[in-house]
Amino acid sequence: MGSISSHTRPVECVQGKIISKTSAILYTGDTMGVIKVWQISKDSGSGSRWNASLERELDYHRTRINDMIYSDGQLWTGMYALVVK
Q1: 17, 20, 28, 54: least buried by Cβ within 10 Å?
Q2: Could you give the CA distance from residue 58 to residue 77 in angstroms, rounded to a whole number?
Q3: How confident is the model over 15-44, as a mean pLDDT?
Q4: C-alpha dihedral, 58 to 28 to 72 to 59, nearest 10°
């Protein structure tokens, strides 16, 4: 269990990609449509501590991101809309 902070709005979804036993990429999407890309790496001095560094920020969405899927080297994002008639 751990935490990383950099978003200014609540995070709605998280997706990850394992690189190796000691590193991964983490994608976090918030309610303002911002995706942050994190490099996660295992601390060599500690058995269970991981370090996160912000690699990139993507702000292509205009509204909240409700879901993300990482597959075949691509990150797919989506927003849900409720239509009431």
Answers
A1: 20
A2: 11
A3: 91
A4: -10
Domain limits, the chain: 11-78
Query: Tokens standing for 16?
Result: 């990850």
Task: State the pLDDT confidence band at 85, using cuts at 50, 70 and 90.
Answer: low
Query: What's the predicted TM-score (pTM) here?
Result: 0.80
Q: Closest Cα to residue 76, out of 67, 84, 85?
A: 67
Strands 11-20 and 23-30: antiparallel
Q: Where do the DSSP E strands lie in the chain?
A: 11-20, 23-30, 35-42, 50-58, 67-71, 74-78
The answer to whether residues 15 and 68 touch, using CB atoms and an 8 Å cutoff, is yes
